[in-house]
Amino acid sequence: MSAVTQTIAVAARPTLIENALLAGARAMSTVAERRMRRRAARLEAEPARRAGLAASRAMSDDVARYLLPR
């Protein structure tokens, strides 16, 4: 079964509702794109974040060595 779509181009100005729908669609696509970019950035930064946490834990475990008098 195949789907057939048709687009009819009319040389008229879009109505207020059509303009609102287009603006809403653009806004939602912008939001989705930003969300995807933030997720990609978080995934790229994950190894460095984990390494930083491990280093922080290691320093916390050695805090007595750094702070106690010798």
Explained architecture:
The chain has 70 residues and is mainly alpha-helical. The protein has 2 helices and no strands. The protein has helices at residues 16-61, 63-67.
Structure at a glance:
The protein is an all-alpha fold. The protein has two helices and no strands. The model has no long low-confidence stretch (mean pLDDT 85).
What tags apply to this protein structure?
about 70 residues; mainly alpha; 2 helices; about 75% helix; about 0% strand; rod-shaped
Q: Would you list the SSEs in sequence order as H and E?
A: HH
> What is the strand tally?
0
Give the helix tally: 2
Largest sheet data: none
Mean pLDDT score: 85
Structural class: mainly alpha
Set down the secondary structure blueprint.
Blueprint: H1 16-61, H2 63-67
